[in-house]
Design brief:
This protein has 2 domains: 128 residues, NAD(P)-binding Rossmann-like Domain (Rossmann fold), CATH 3.40.50; 162 residues, Lactate dehydrogenase/glycoside hydrolase, family 4, C-terminal (L-2-Hydroxyisocaproate Dehydrogenase, Chain A, domain 2), CATH 3.90.110. Helix content is 44%, strand content 19%. Helix 1 runs parallel beside helix 2 and helix 6 crosses helix 9. The mean pLDDT is 95.
Length: 296
């Protein structure tokens, strides 16, 4: 996941990139391999692989993908507590060497780990962002485009809420060339695509068996990084720490955000129906359960 983020970002020449891992030799090998691709791609991104956080000093953006996947026999609480300890270690080192960076969290469980990073870092809420909505919306867009046989460029979609079974795809705000998909598809078809979106990660895991998605998640991270580095003021669904927006307090939940040079520059509160709002609150309650386990 982390190396593929580096791949996308280097290919877009977004800046100099440092890959860091705890496995000796792994980041150095991947970093060097990617660096040697730059002359072919005609990109001047410098790529370095390392095990030393000193090499990441003064980063503008730090993407955290560290964490373990759930193993057979491991409870949800075991997974949370293990990844909490990993996040604790990583965040402390990142903050020491890059105190002015923007943090983008990818580690799972996404919303709980974003909240952990926010609390541990002491950063303002605009500088800690969870990657989930961009990925989930991209999956929804891909499924809509396939169903209607249209270009993905014509399709926009919004998925709010936590990154998991309780995510909230919004068909009313999902369009093809500006036309809501509610005008283009039967309700049953939309419901099928919504469910496939919710199951998007699990569907890929089922195929891979020993791994999970990394191309689309890392592309989603790259879109967020580009929006921040280029100060694009792009509206993207991201996990943000809410302080009353949508009636939610003190939790990371996926909502539409404006990303620019300062990270999250604004949270957009769009009108939701009672049913949509209830689904978002249910999603927030699931996040609340997770963060309670690790006490953040």
């Amino acid at each position: 996941m982390g190396a593929t983020c580096g791949h996308w970002m280097a290919s877009k020449e977004l800046g100099d990139i440092v890959l860091i891992d705890v496995i000796p030799g792994l980041p150095q090998g991947k970093g060097l391999d990617l660096l040697e691709a730059m002359p072919i791609e005609k990109r001047d991104s410098f790529v370095l692989g390392t095990e030393d956080y000193k090499d990441t000093a003064n980063s503008d953006i730090v993407v955290i993908t560290a964490g373990i996947a759930r193993k057979p026999g491991m409870s949800r609480d075991d997974l949370l507590n293990t990844n909490y300890k990993i996040m604790q270690d990583v965040v402390s080192k990142v903050v020491t060497h890059s105190p002015n960076c923007v943090l983008i969290i990818v580690s799972n469980p996404l919303d709980a780990m974003a909240q952990t990073a926010y609390k541990l870092s002491g950063f303002s809420r605009n500088r800690v962002i969870g990657m989930a909505g961009v990925l989930d919306s991209a999956r929804f867009r891909a499924f809509i485009a396939m169903e209607l046989g249209v270009s993905v460029e014509n399709v926009t979609a919004f998925v709010l809420g936590g990154h998991g079974d309780t995510m909230v795809p919004l068909p009313r705000y999902s369009t093809v060339a500006g036309v809501p998909i509610t005008e283009l598809m039967e309700k049953s078809t939309i419901e099928r695509l919504v469910q496939r979106t919710r199951d998007g990660g699990a569907e890929i895991v089922k195929y891979l068996k020993t791994g999970s998605a990394y191309y689309a998640p890392s592309a989603a991270v790259t879109e967020m990084v580009e929006a921040i580095l280029k100060d694009k003021k792009k509206i993207l669904p991201c996990a943000a720490y809410l302080e009353g927006e949508y009636g939610i307090h003190g939790l990371f939940v996926g909502v539409p955000c404006k990303l620019g040079s300062r990270g999250i520059e604004d949270v957009w509160e769009i009108h939701l129906t009672d049913e949509e709002m209830a689904a978002l609150k249910k999603s927030a309650d699931s996040v609340k359960e997770l963060v309670a386990v690790v006490g953040v």
